[in-house]
């Protein structure tokens, strides 16, 4: 133990601090190893945390002591990048499904036929709950847990050994004198329902997205690069199968599972050995009725032929064994009344209608909300406020409204008028036309991206991201904190942060996690971005369909923000010259053009752009450094090109500073005509535009780039 711990950090001399720091680093690393690698911690979590806090306090006062290998800088138990892949020694198979009892009878009949058994010969089956989690493979060598993997695609999974070591149900060492030298134990990792709800509360409280169901929560928790996070998550394991084994300790499935239990593995207590099919089906009925009261999700019963010699003979069809089948449960449904319909606005602006229901129990969970997906769904199912509806909980927490019970519709039931304005920010909410189908999109979206508080954190994060304003030190966490503190509500506020800070009651340097240096660094990073290239500015605005490539195209074609804004205003009616010009840019179609016009038509968005321009200078587009005679020229490709693809041609042209348009106009400088060129070629002739063959064009670009 470190004796110096009693001296307050403020009073430590530099030498004493360095000595204690070195001690702490060694000590914490050793504890990490015991915890993650050996899974044999020797101190409590609280004691560990105290050591870690002390380390952080010392490093905060003596930043010089922070080295790359300090535990404060490394993520204990983490794999460097992603997970290592592990090929399973024996493939991890899936199961065939049966839904009706009839299909289960067929399953057994097939087995009898295959084995040549008559009706009289009993076929003992094991009936096991089908756990709704994720399959895992654990390798035990000489009784020690040495490697854990996810199922992956059945052949190759991910190495999650460190994470699995944190699961209490998994013994590090198997006990007993009949444990094979080497055995792959298989089973299901899952999360209990109560633990899942608690985790989701914590997730939401921390501003993170909740998990949809316990299965996703278990998978998400297991596949953490930082095993420390997995360690904090309540995961469990049931063993129910095996892969390669140097010896199999029994002649039946039930016999092997009994040995698993004796070795210290957890097996499911509800599994039953059944002397015939009727007994197995009875287990299904019992479990289905108990389902809601279990504290973990199951979605069916797995029947397995108990005799292993028969399993061996039965073998596999494609990816499932002939000796097992999953008899699924019916999805859980219930009837209730729609009290009201609310709209939720998602982080990307989608308006999702939610039915507020008279609370009803479905599959053991009290449900008072159900999603109606979108406007189209409400229309299609004709759901009205006051209707009686059937809802279904299909493993997911958010149940769905399946259908209206038409007989029970009261005459007072009123149709729902879907709002055309965002309920959060009052901007217009629109349904776009999908150009491929010519039909309206199912979802309605809020157009107030930059001012809509439902979307604002996401938008701000995008605004400062690497390819946009690229403000260092301003990540999602910081944005969220600034937003919650009321310091940053719109992008403009970012550029007013430093000024605000001068008058703030608690300046940034005094916030938790900040200091003099980091605050100053952030303000400097923001200052450095007061000049921004047009294409980055456009991309940062987060206009729908305007990614980096489109932003660049716009910058290239319009040159300046003033020019672009003028044209977009002029194109508002979606007709006329300005619209045609926009639509004609190769790579920008009706959808993108429409999104741009909608964006600028929204007064809130215009205000944000105007306010931003008071804080930052948007630099005009500068064509790439080239003396090319092609720079600034507009080129149209038409007909079939033989020696390059369209996109290749376009990329090359743009690299030389040319603009590529989709149709011939007064502004066209060259038309490059491949074979079978049609109307564009004719139009070019009429307009007297220079026409080049593909070869001539290639010569021109070669001489330019060479
Ligand atoms: S046996 C060769 N038993 O269901 C058979 N699987 O649909 C291997 N599962 O990937 C699986 N409970 O994740 C088996 N008692 C149980 C199960 C079970 C849940 C899952 C498992 C498997 C999937 C197949």
Helices, by number, come to 25
What are the bound molecules? 2-(butylsulfanyl)adenosine
C-alpha Rg (nearest Å): 33 Å
What is the CATH class name of the domain at 89-328? Alpha Beta
Determine the N-to-C terminus distance. Answer: 69 Å
**CATH fold-type name of the domain at 89-328:** D-amino Acid Aminotransferase, Chain A, domain 1
Summarize the biggest pleated sheet: 7 strands, antiparallel
Helix content: 25-40%
**Proportion of beta-strand residues:** 15-25%
Mean pLDDT across every amino acid position? 87
Overview of this protein structure:
With 706 residues, the protein is α+β, with helices and mostly antiparallel strands. Among the domains are: 89-328, 2-Layer Sandwich (D-amino Acid Aminotransferase, Chain A, domain 1), CATH 3.30.470.30; 533-619, DNA polymerase, domain 1, CATH 1.10.150.20; 634-705, Rossmann fold. The chain is 37% helix and 21% strand. Helix 12 (456-464) crosses helix 13 (476-484). It starts with 13 loop residues before the first helix and ends with a helix. The chain binds 2-(butylsulfanyl)adenosine. 2-(butylsulfanyl)adenosine (IVH) is lined by residues 93-95, 128, 130-131, 135, 151, 188, 240-241, 302, 321, 324, 326.
Quick summary of this structure?
The chain has 706 residues and is an alpha+beta fold. The longest helix has 24 residues, at 14-37.
Show the helix and strand layout.
Elements lengths: L13 H24 L7 H17 L23 E3 L9 E2 L2 H15 L9 E7 L2 E8 L2 E7 L5 E3 L2 H4 L17 E9 L2 H13 L8 H9 L4 H5 L4 E10 L7 H11 L8 E3 L2 H14 L7 E8 L2 H7 L1 E2 L2 E2 L2 E5 L3 E14 L4 E13 L2 E7 L3 H7 L2 E2 L2 E6 L6 E5 L9 E2 L13 E2 L2 E2 L4 E2 L3 E3 L9 H9 L11 H9 L6 H5 L1 H7 L12 H12 L3 E3 H7 L7 H11 L2 H10 L6 H8 L5 H12 L1 H13 L1 E3 L14 E5 L7 H10 L3 E3 L8 E4 L5 H9 L2 E4 H12 L1
Parallel strand pairs: 2-13, 25-26, 27-28, 27-29, 29-30
Antiparallel strand pairs: 1-6, 3-9, 3-10, 4-5, 4-7, 7-8, 10-13, 11-12, 14-15, 14-18, 15-16, 15-24, 17-20, 18-19, 21-24, 22-23
The structure holds 2-(butylsulfanyl)adenosine.
2-(butylsulfanyl)adenosine (IVH) binds next to strand 3, strand 8 and strand 13.
């Amino acid at each position: 133990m470190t004796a110096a711990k009693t001296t307050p950090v403020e009073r430590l001399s530099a030498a004493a601090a360095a000595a204690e720091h070195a001690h702490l680093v060694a000590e914490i690393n050793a504890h990490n190893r015991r915890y993650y690698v050996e899974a044999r911690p020797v101190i409590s979590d609280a004691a560990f945390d105290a050591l870690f806090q002390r380390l952080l306090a010392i490093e905060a006062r003596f930043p010089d002591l922070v080295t790359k290998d300090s535990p404060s800088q490394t993520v204990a138990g983490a794999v460097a990048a992603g997970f290592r892949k592990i090929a399973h020694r024996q493939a991890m198979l899936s199961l065939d499904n049966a839904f009706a009892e009839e299909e289960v009878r067929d399953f057994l009949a097939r087995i009898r036929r295959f084995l040549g058994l008559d009706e009289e010969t009993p076929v003992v089956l094991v009936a096991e709950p089908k756990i709704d989690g994720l399959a895992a493979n654990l390798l035990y060598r000489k009784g020690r847990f040495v490697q854990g993997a996810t199922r992956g695609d059945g052949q190759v999974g991910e190495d999650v050994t460190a994470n699995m070591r944190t699961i209490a149900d998994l013994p590090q060492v198997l006990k007993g004198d009949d444990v094979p030298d080497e055995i792959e134990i298989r089973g299901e990792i899952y999360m209990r329902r109560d633990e899942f709800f608690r985790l989701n509360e914590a997730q939401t409280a921390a501003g993170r997205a909740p998990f949809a169901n316990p299965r996703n929560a278990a998978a998400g928790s297991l596949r953490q690069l930082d095993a420390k996070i997995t360690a904090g998550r309540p995961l469990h394991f049931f063993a129910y199968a095996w892969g390669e084994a140097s010896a199999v300790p029994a002649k039946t499935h039930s016999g092997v599972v009994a040995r698993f239990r004796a070795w210290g593995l957890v097996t499911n207590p509800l599994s039953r050995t059944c002397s015939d099919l009727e007994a197995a089906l009875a287990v299904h009925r019992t479990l289905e009725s108990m389902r809601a009261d279990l504290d973990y999700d199951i979605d069916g019963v797995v029947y397995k032929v108990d005799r292993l010699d028969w399993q061996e003979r039965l073998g596999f069809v494609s990816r499932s064994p002939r000796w097992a089948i999953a008899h699924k449960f019916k999805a859980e449904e219930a009837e209730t009344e729609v009290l009201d319909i609310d709209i939720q606005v998602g982080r990307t602006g989608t308006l999702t209608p939610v039915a507020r229901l008279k609370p009803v129990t479905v599959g053991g969970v009290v449900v008072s909300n159900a999603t109606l997906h979108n406007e189209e769904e409400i229309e299609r199912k004709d759901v009205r406020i006051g209707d009686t509806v059937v809802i279904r909980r299909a493993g997911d927490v958010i149940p769905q409204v399946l259908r209206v019970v038409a007989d029970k519709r009261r005459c007072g039931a009123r149709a729902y008028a879907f709002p055309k304005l965002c309920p959060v920010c009052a901007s217009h909410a629109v349904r776009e036309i999908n150009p491929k189908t010519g039909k309206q999109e199912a979802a309605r979206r809020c157009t107030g991206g930059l001012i809509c508080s439902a979307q604002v954190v996401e938008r701000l994060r995008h605004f400062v991201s690497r390819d946009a304003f690229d403000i260092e030190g301003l990540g999602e966490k910081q944005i969220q904190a600034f937003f919650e503190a009321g310091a940053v509500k719109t992008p403009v506020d970012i550029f007013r942060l430093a000024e605000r800070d001068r008058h703030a009651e608690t300046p940034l340097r005094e916030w938790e996690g900040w200091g003099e240096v980091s605050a100053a660094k952030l303000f400097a990073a923001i200052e450095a971005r007061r000049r921004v290239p047009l294409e980055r500015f456009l991309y940062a605005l987060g206009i729908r369909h305007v990614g980096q490539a489109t932003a660049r195209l716009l910058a290239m074609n319009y040159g300046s923000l003033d020019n672009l804004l003028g044209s977009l205003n002029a194109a508002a009616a979606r007709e006329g010259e300005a619209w045609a010009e926009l639509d004609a840019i190769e790579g920008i179609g009706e959808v993108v053009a429409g999104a741009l016009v909608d964006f600028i038509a929204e007064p809130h968005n215009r205000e944000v752009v105007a306010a931003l321009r008071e804080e930052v200078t948007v630099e005009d587009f500068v064509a790439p450094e080239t003396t090319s005679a092609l720079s600034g020229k507009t080129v149209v490709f038409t007909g079939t090109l033989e020696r390059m693809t369209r996109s290749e041609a376009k990329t090359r042209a743009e690299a030389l500073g040319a603009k590529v348009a989709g149709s011939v106009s007064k502004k066209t400088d060259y038309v490059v005509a491949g074979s079978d060129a049609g109307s564009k070629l004719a139009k070019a002739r009429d307009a007297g535009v220079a026409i080049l063959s593909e070869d001539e064009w290639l010569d021109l670009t070669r001489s330019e780039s060479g």
